[in-house]
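Worked example

This section walks through a single chain of length 277. The input is the sequence exactly as stored; nothing has been trimmed or padded.
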Amino acid sequence: MLKDVTLGQFFPGNSFLHKADPRIKLVVLVVYMVFVLLAQNALSLALVLGVTLALAFISRIRFSVVMRSLKPVIFILMFTGLINLFFTTGETPLVEWWIFKIYPEGILTAIFMMIRLVCLVAGSSLLLSYTTSPLALTDAIESLFGPLRKIGVPVHEFAMMMTIALRFIPTLIEETDKIISAQKARGADFEDGGLLKKAKALIPVLIPLFVSAFRRADELAEAMECRCYRGGEGRTKLKVMKSRGVDYLFLLLMIGLCVAVPFINHYLSFTLGVFAL
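Given that input, the structure is written out below as tokens.
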């Protein structure tokens, strides 16, 4: 069900990740993404997987919730796995069928890329939306990109748009689920038939969804006008963000792990080469 999709949701808590400075978490997120993409072998990938599991443990968010964050990217995971499975070549194929050949290297590459993508999505959700409220995320983006105001970039408006878009993902998913349930109650069939028939069956869902989205946007704009919202100029904050020493230690640890990955890649490759000799 679409209501099981947790993309963009915030889960209040009292963990270290919840209390961490959102500005530090945004920088850590960038470092973490580089950390994941630098992994090139089994040892570095195991380190990435271990760090992702550690983030899930520290956040105190149920593992089932973290796994549900992967539902929107299941198709991308399958597509990535199949592409690497059939288009990665090697020395001796395991399976040959028509023009397709599956090599052991292709299987390993497919598994490697899928695990990397899983870690990227799960870790990003844990560092961003799961443990950071929309208001804190807006303040963090505005603070980090504040220097761009000097060259005329509307930083506050940019941060507000990003946060509103992220905040309304769960709302639109819930609205879509309600529309689909209502259509099924009226006899609509979304499961039988081919791909073209299923696509046509979604038209009665998309039209009311777009109408609802525009209505919500209009209501939000009116609410902001009624509260005399005029952008970020002269605005004060109820909660001032403060960085603690442990937040900087967290950032330094992630940077250290990111720097260590190339050495791990080189060391493992060198070790395997020595054993091959």
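What to look for: The longest strand covers residues 95-97.
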